[in-house]
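Cross-posted from the bioinformatics board.
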Amino acid sequence: MTTAFPPGRSLRSPKFAESAKVALGMPQLRSNLAHATGTIRGKRATVVGELDDWESLRDAAAAIKADVQHRMPELAVAFERKATEAGATVHWARDGAEANRIAARITREAGADEVVKVKSMATQEIELNEHFEAEGLKAWETDLAELIVQLAEDRPSHILVPAIHYNRTEIRDIFKGRMSDAPTGLTDEPAALAEAARLHLRRRFLSAKVAVSGANFAVAETGSLVVVESEGNGRMCLTMPRTLISVVGVEKLLPRFEDLEVFMQLLPRSSTGERMNPYTSIWTGATGGDGPEDVHIILLDNGRTDVLADEVGRQALSCIRCSACLNVCPVYERTGGHAYGHVYPGPIGAILAPQLEPGRHDDLPYASSLCGACYEVCPVKINIPEVLVHLRQQGPHHVGEKAAMGAAEAVMARPRLWRAALGAARFFSLPWRKRGSVRRLPWPASKWTVSRDMPVPPKETFRDWWKERER
Amino acid sequence: MSRIGLFITCVNDALYPQTPKAVVAVLERLGYDVDFPQAQTCCGQMHANSGYRKDAAKLAKSFERTFAGYDAIVTPSGSCAAMTRDQYPDLTGTDIGDRVYELSEFLLDHAGVEDVGASFPHTVTYHPTCHGTRALGLGDKPLRLLRAVDRIELVDLPEADQCCGFGGTFALKNSEVSSAMLDDKCRHAADTGAEYLAAADNSCLTHIGGGIGRVGGPRPIHYAEILASTT
Ligand code: SF4
């Protein structure tokens, strides 16, 4: 079995370029990723192409999210009031540690030592499973891909398809080796794998007293939460256990119920490439005799309100975690998600991680060629390249690079010096003129010549030619 | 008659005189008078995109001074045009970018010409560069001009819209990822069997051409040079 990275690799380091190098050296990983992202790119493009008003939907979604960012405190309080009126208990968590403590306490008070989980990025972000483990509680993932990752003691590498770095043979091997009740003679047919997981999970659903979920949307007007999913495991978790704990980032708020109309058109098409997703669960507080009786909502900040203060950077809070930007990103496709060293990988991770944890992911804004494919597909129109450049402009700079950039600017801002520099470059490249290009240069230019020739300056520049003809 | 200033870009200034010469040839063939302000250097894109805002702002100011007197500024670079239009307003508050045209924009939108009277008896594949296509919104403008060229044979580039991996300092900072992207681009380019690979940006062509120099494939050429050709 090939795991994408040795288990236990710290989430913090190494830096992106180093981790990317490791990933690039794994041909199986690269082919799994290229295949998976290629397929989903195609599906997305087809279903998006069916909607004439796609661009208006994107504009509407961006406008709604911008409004939410302007009125976040007001909307959060309105949501709390409505949800409380409907019988939910709303908790506020400043950071992950606080949210984890609250969730663990509720679980204990419910007389449970384990929970079943709906796939949720917020709980990944706060490392709820690890926290539960440390407290002697167990959190079981029930989303198929999350289950695979949990069994493999690995980490998710994609927002929507956490096990995207595995192919089905590798998944079969994980099930056989690590799932105690895996059927003998299990094949790598997707249907057989899904059935094995279904049987394995059914027992958990039937005995669980507590479920933990996130939410795709939190409607302030009604106090409702919304979970959008494909497999139905979420519906099981959201309806069967007596106690439900939902960890919801404050940026998930929407002002009105009717806003869902916009997002429910954008999200499935952008994420799975489907016109509509199989299961959408919407609940408002607790309803006697129907679903969970003890409903808790933990509203999570964890750095989000600090991000709000940055007028350019705060766009990142509009993200609906569809993962379209990952699927089109040429960098992500080649490195996979683990290289980013954060639970949010790909283009959105490159702008969100450094903002949620300032000072910790300063290399991520550089993990992009600024090709703009992400912005083109983002359903909420986050201008990812703009935020990347903005973060690069905020971030600390390497001393040597800073000096070089300053020197380049000093020359380029003075036409006479610039012309002199061009002359010098022509002079020093004379030995290579005949060949027309240079094959090897010293560091740091060696980073260029490792895979590319460097052209040499021409004998006659455009300037010379122009002067000659003006005469 | 409006005054047209030619912004050749620092890359062409240093390495590719044939491209701005071609722009001059095409514009003059269509009856335009072009001027080349000598004080021009660089639009500041490398500085801005690498995070050096102050340096970039100084270069933007210098661009603004150099081209203040022109009604239209024509450049053979999609990414430099995008720089002036997208980033200058925020950097220095100037809207000079509204008067900057990438060559194909000038020809199609300003001059209203699709057939520039060129002839190029070769097979050509076209790579739509990311900044030109996405940031500037060129769409298929350069390709439309190429389609109108006499005797040219255009071959589709597989996965044309995938980035070549250049990305300015990205090619150095994340050299391995960039090289992996370049590998794929070179392979697709070679698969076309075309004689030339055309694009709207010599910086991208330096990257792709640098890779092709190692593994073989079509010869990189700026599409302006094809438009200038009358062979
Ligand atoms: S940034 Fe946009 S495209 Fe990427 S996951 Fe978020 S919503 Fe989707």
